[in-house]
Specification:
Elements lengths: L7 H6 L5 H20 L3 E2 L10 E7 L5 E8 L7 H8 L7 E6 L3 E7 L3 E4 H4 L2 H15 L12 H16 L7 H13 L20 E3 L3 H4 L2
Helix pairs in contact: 6-7
Amino acid sequence: MPDLELPTNLMREMTELAAPRRTWLADLPAVVETVSRECSLEVGRPFQPGGVTSWTAPARTAAGERVVLKVGWRHDEALHEADGLAAWNGDGAVRLLAHRVLDHTTALLLEACEPGTPLSDIRPPEEQDVVIAGLLRRLWIEPAADSPFRPLTSMCDVWADEFEEKLTRAPHLDPGLARTGMEQFRELPRTATQSRLLCTDLHPDNVLSARHVAAMLRP
Protein backbone atom coordinates (compact mmCIF):
# COMPACT_ATOMS: atom_id res chain seq x y z
CA MET A 1 0.00 0.00 0.00
CA PRO A 2 2.41 2.74 -1.13
CA ASP A 3 1.77 6.21 0.30
CA LEU A 4 -1.25 5.08 2.32
CA GLU A 5 -0.89 4.11 5.98
CA LEU A 6 -3.13 1.25 7.07
CA PRO A 7 -4.66 0.70 10.53
CA THR A 8 -2.90 -2.04 12.45
CA ASN A 9 -6.05 -4.19 12.67
CA LEU A 10 -6.41 -4.13 8.91
CA MET A 11 -2.72 -4.91 8.45
CA ARG A 12 -3.07 -7.89 10.78
CA GLU A 13 -5.94 -9.32 8.74
CA MET A 14 -4.32 -8.88 5.32
CA THR A 15 -2.96 -12.42 5.00
CA GLU A 16 -6.39 -13.91 5.73
CA LEU A 17 -8.54 -11.65 3.56
CA ALA A 18 -10.80 -13.25 0.97
CA ALA A 19 -10.46 -12.25 -2.68
CA PRO A 20 -13.23 -9.57 -2.72
CA ARG A 21 -11.73 -7.70 0.21
CA ARG A 22 -8.23 -7.99 -1.26
CA THR A 23 -9.55 -6.27 -4.39
CA TRP A 24 -11.04 -3.52 -2.23
CA LEU A 25 -7.76 -3.14 -0.39
CA ALA A 26 -5.76 -2.91 -3.62
CA ASP A 27 -8.05 -0.11 -4.83
CA LEU A 28 -8.01 1.72 -1.49
CA PRO A 29 -5.18 4.23 -2.15
CA ALA A 30 -6.76 5.37 -5.42
CA VAL A 31 -10.20 5.65 -3.83
CA VAL A 32 -8.93 7.73 -0.90
CA GLU A 33 -7.06 10.00 -3.33
CA THR A 34 -10.10 10.40 -5.60
CA VAL A 35 -12.57 11.14 -2.80
CA SER A 36 -10.14 13.53 -1.10
CA ARG A 37 -9.69 15.47 -4.33
CA GLU A 38 -13.37 15.59 -5.26
CA CYS A 39 -14.40 16.70 -1.75
CA SER A 40 -11.42 19.07 -1.36
CA LEU A 41 -10.24 17.30 1.79
CA GLU A 42 -6.97 17.40 3.64
CA VAL A 43 -6.85 13.87 5.04
CA GLY A 44 -4.80 12.85 8.06
CA ARG A 45 -3.42 9.52 9.24
CA PRO A 46 -5.99 6.78 9.88
CA PHE A 47 -7.39 6.16 13.32
CA GLN A 48 -5.55 3.38 15.14
CA PRO A 49 -5.89 0.48 15.66
CA GLY A 50 -8.87 0.82 13.32
CA GLY A 51 -11.19 -1.90 12.04
CA VAL A 52 -10.98 -4.71 9.49
CA THR A 53 -13.61 -3.58 6.96
CA SER A 54 -12.88 0.14 6.57
CA TRP A 55 -10.19 2.82 6.42
CA THR A 56 -11.18 5.79 8.58
CA ALA A 57 -9.25 9.00 9.15
CA PRO A 58 -9.75 12.59 10.35
CA ALA A 59 -9.88 15.25 7.66
CA ARG A 60 -10.47 18.95 7.09
CA THR A 61 -12.62 20.54 4.42
CA ALA A 62 -11.54 23.50 2.32
CA ALA A 63 -13.45 25.69 4.81
CA GLY A 64 -11.44 24.23 7.71
CA GLU A 65 -14.26 22.08 9.15
CA ARG A 66 -13.11 18.98 10.99
CA VAL A 67 -14.74 15.86 9.50
CA VAL A 68 -14.07 12.14 9.18
CA LEU A 69 -13.58 10.16 5.96
CA LYS A 70 -14.63 6.51 6.14
CA VAL A 71 -13.85 4.31 3.14
CA GLY A 72 -15.45 0.93 3.69
CA TRP A 73 -15.55 -2.41 1.96
CA ARG A 74 -19.06 -3.00 0.60
CA HIS A 75 -20.45 -6.07 2.35
CA ASP A 76 -23.91 -7.24 3.34
CA GLU A 77 -23.97 -6.05 6.95
CA ALA A 78 -22.91 -2.51 5.98
CA LEU A 79 -25.04 -2.38 2.85
CA HIS A 80 -27.29 0.48 4.01
CA GLU A 81 -24.99 2.27 6.45
CA ALA A 82 -25.33 5.60 4.63
CA ASP A 83 -29.13 5.25 4.46
CA GLY A 84 -29.30 4.55 8.20
CA LEU A 85 -27.15 7.55 9.10
CA ALA A 86 -29.26 9.74 6.82
CA ALA A 87 -32.45 8.52 8.51
CA TRP A 88 -31.10 9.21 12.02
CA ASN A 89 -29.85 12.64 10.87
CA GLY A 90 -27.48 13.13 13.79
CA ASP A 91 -29.91 12.06 16.54
CA GLY A 92 -27.95 9.41 18.45
CA ALA A 93 -25.47 8.86 15.62
CA VAL A 94 -22.90 10.90 13.71
CA ARG A 95 -24.36 13.05 10.97
CA LEU A 96 -23.77 11.95 7.38
CA LEU A 97 -22.43 14.88 5.36
CA ALA A 98 -21.97 13.15 1.99
CA HIS A 99 -21.41 9.70 0.56
CA ARG A 100 -20.38 8.00 -2.65
CA VAL A 101 -20.80 4.37 -3.78
CA LEU A 102 -18.07 2.84 -5.96
CA ASP A 103 -17.51 -0.71 -7.22
CA HIS A 104 -16.22 -2.27 -4.00
CA THR A 105 -16.46 0.73 -1.70
CA THR A 106 -18.80 3.06 0.11
CA ALA A 107 -17.09 6.35 1.00
CA LEU A 108 -18.74 8.32 3.81
CA LEU A 109 -17.99 11.89 4.86
CA LEU A 110 -19.03 12.14 8.49
CA GLU A 111 -19.40 14.62 11.28
CA ALA A 112 -16.39 14.34 13.61
CA CYS A 113 -16.97 12.99 17.12
CA GLU A 114 -15.02 15.22 19.49
CA PRO A 115 -13.42 14.32 21.79
CA GLY A 116 -14.34 10.86 20.45
CA THR A 117 -13.57 8.80 23.56
CA PRO A 118 -15.14 5.30 23.47
CA LEU A 119 -17.84 4.67 26.04
CA SER A 120 -15.97 1.53 27.11
CA ASP A 121 -13.06 3.72 28.28
CA ILE A 122 -15.01 6.14 30.48
CA ARG A 123 -17.81 4.20 32.18
CA PRO A 124 -18.00 0.90 34.12
CA PRO A 125 -20.01 -1.89 32.44
CA GLU A 126 -23.24 -1.31 34.38
CA GLU A 127 -23.26 2.38 33.43
CA GLN A 128 -22.43 1.54 29.81
CA ASP A 129 -25.69 -0.43 29.67
CA VAL A 130 -27.65 2.64 30.78
CA VAL A 131 -26.10 4.78 28.04
CA ILE A 132 -26.72 2.10 25.40
CA ALA A 133 -30.36 1.80 26.48
CA GLY A 134 -30.75 5.56 26.15
CA LEU A 135 -29.28 5.49 22.67
CA LEU A 136 -31.59 2.67 21.62
CA ARG A 137 -34.63 4.78 22.49
CA ARG A 138 -33.37 7.41 20.04
CA LEU A 139 -32.23 5.03 17.32
CA TRP A 140 -35.39 2.89 17.22
CA ILE A 141 -37.23 5.06 14.71
CA GLU A 142 -39.89 3.94 12.27
CA PRO A 143 -38.30 3.76 8.79
CA ALA A 144 -39.93 5.54 5.89
CA ALA A 145 -42.21 3.42 3.73
CA ASP A 146 -39.86 3.69 0.74
CA SER A 147 -36.67 2.97 2.72
CA PRO A 148 -34.25 0.34 1.36
CA PHE A 149 -33.67 -1.45 4.67
CA ARG A 150 -33.96 -5.22 4.75
CA PRO A 151 -36.31 -6.84 7.28
CA LEU A 152 -34.70 -8.43 10.32
CA THR A 153 -36.22 -11.78 9.32
CA SER A 154 -34.08 -11.98 6.17
CA MET A 155 -30.90 -10.98 8.02
CA CYS A 156 -31.52 -13.54 10.80
CA ASP A 157 -32.14 -16.23 8.19
CA VAL A 158 -28.75 -15.51 6.62
CA TRP A 159 -26.97 -15.53 10.00
CA ALA A 160 -28.73 -18.77 10.99
CA ASP A 161 -27.72 -20.42 7.70
CA GLU A 162 -24.10 -19.38 8.29
CA PHE A 163 -24.16 -20.70 11.85
CA GLU A 164 -25.67 -24.04 10.84
CA GLU A 165 -23.02 -24.49 8.16
CA LYS A 166 -20.28 -23.83 10.74
CA LEU A 167 -21.99 -26.16 13.22
CA THR A 168 -20.86 -29.14 11.15
CA ARG A 169 -17.27 -28.16 12.00
CA ALA A 170 -17.91 -27.57 15.72
CA PRO A 171 -18.20 -31.02 17.37
CA HIS A 172 -17.88 -29.49 20.85
CA LEU A 173 -21.36 -27.92 20.53
CA ASP A 174 -24.57 -29.80 21.35
CA PRO A 175 -26.21 -29.97 17.87
CA GLY A 176 -29.73 -30.38 19.25
CA LEU A 177 -29.43 -27.37 21.54
CA ALA A 178 -27.77 -25.30 18.83
CA ARG A 179 -30.48 -26.07 16.28
CA THR A 180 -33.21 -25.26 18.80
CA GLY A 181 -31.55 -21.91 19.37
CA MET A 182 -31.39 -21.23 15.64
CA GLU A 183 -35.08 -22.13 15.25
CA GLN A 184 -35.89 -19.45 17.83
CA PHE A 185 -33.49 -17.07 16.08
CA ARG A 186 -35.46 -17.52 12.85
CA GLU A 187 -38.94 -17.48 14.39
CA LEU A 188 -38.81 -14.61 16.90
CA PRO A 189 -38.32 -11.79 14.34
CA ARG A 190 -41.47 -13.01 12.59
CA THR A 191 -43.54 -12.22 15.69
CA ALA A 192 -42.79 -8.49 15.50
CA THR A 193 -45.79 -6.20 15.14
CA GLN A 194 -43.85 -2.98 14.41
CA SER A 195 -41.05 -1.91 12.09
CA ARG A 196 -38.08 -0.12 13.61
CA LEU A 197 -34.67 0.84 12.27
CA LEU A 198 -32.05 -1.26 14.08
CA CYS A 199 -28.35 -0.65 14.66
CA THR A 200 -26.74 -4.06 14.16
CA ASP A 201 -23.37 -3.41 15.82
CA LEU A 202 -24.21 -1.29 18.86
CA HIS A 203 -21.73 -1.88 21.70
CA PRO A 204 -19.63 0.34 24.02
CA ASP A 205 -16.56 0.35 21.74
CA ASN A 206 -18.72 1.82 18.96
CA VAL A 207 -20.23 4.61 21.07
CA LEU A 208 -18.07 7.74 21.10
CA SER A 209 -18.36 10.93 23.10
CA ALA A 210 -19.28 14.05 21.13
CA ARG A 211 -20.36 17.57 21.99
CA HIS A 212 -23.93 17.12 20.77
CA VAL A 213 -24.46 14.06 23.05
CA ALA A 214 -22.27 15.17 25.94
CA ALA A 215 -25.22 15.25 28.35
CA MET A 216 -25.72 11.51 27.89
CA LEU A 217 -22.11 10.75 28.78
CA ARG A 218 -21.61 13.22 31.60
CA PRO A 219 -21.12 11.66 35.10
